[in-house]
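Quick one, tokens below. Sequence please?
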């Protein structure tokens, strides 16, 4: 039996609950260097460290693993990094990709083991990884770079970091 719509005008529908507006990413007050210059997307030193890491990686012509987040900005950044390494002379067959499984992070033990099993000499984590954690993989012979725009004051041990909001190198 179908229900009939009520036509009783005394019933007033509940108003929808209003959400608090979220802060827009662009509204974040950027950090400034000692001279008052805006450090965006990152400090010159941080960008230079990432640039040097990529140049070193391409020059070494060693197996490299790109680990992008699986959203649009992570995948796009991963493609840009791959094309950059190839433009710098890295043979394309030495650039691999590792996609993190669903519902885990790059810091998950199974993911760390899976990345290590691919035997890279360089790992580039893109759009993720910004939190305190052990090294990206358990090997002192593998260099890692974290490129992220998420706010964090902590990163994995022994990683070179290019972060838009915290500019430091942890190794």
């Amino acid at each position: 039996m179908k229900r009939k719509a009520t036509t009783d005008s005394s019933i007033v529908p509940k108003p929808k609950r209003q959400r608090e507006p979220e802060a827009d990413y662009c509204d974040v007050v950027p950090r400034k260097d000692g001279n008052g210059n805006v450090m965006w997307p990152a400090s010159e030193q941080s960008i230079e460290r990432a640039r040097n890491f990529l140049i070193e990686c391409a020059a070494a012509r060693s197996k490299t693993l790109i680990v992008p987040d699986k959203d649009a900005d992570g995948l796009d950044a991963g493609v840009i990094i791959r094309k950059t390494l190839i433009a710098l002379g890295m043979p394309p067959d030495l650039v691999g990709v590792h996609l993190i499984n669903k519902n885990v992070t790059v810091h998950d033990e199974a993911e760390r083991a899976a990345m290590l099993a691919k035997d890279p000499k360089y790992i580039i984590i893109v759009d993720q990884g910004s939190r305190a954690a052990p090294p990206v993989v358990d090997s002192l012979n593998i260099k890692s770079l974290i490129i992220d725009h998420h706010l964090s004051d902590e990163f994995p041990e022994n990683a070179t970091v290019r972060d838009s909001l915290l500019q430091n190198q942890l190794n």
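Helices lie at 44-60, 72-87, 109-117. The first strand starts at residue 64 and ends at 68.
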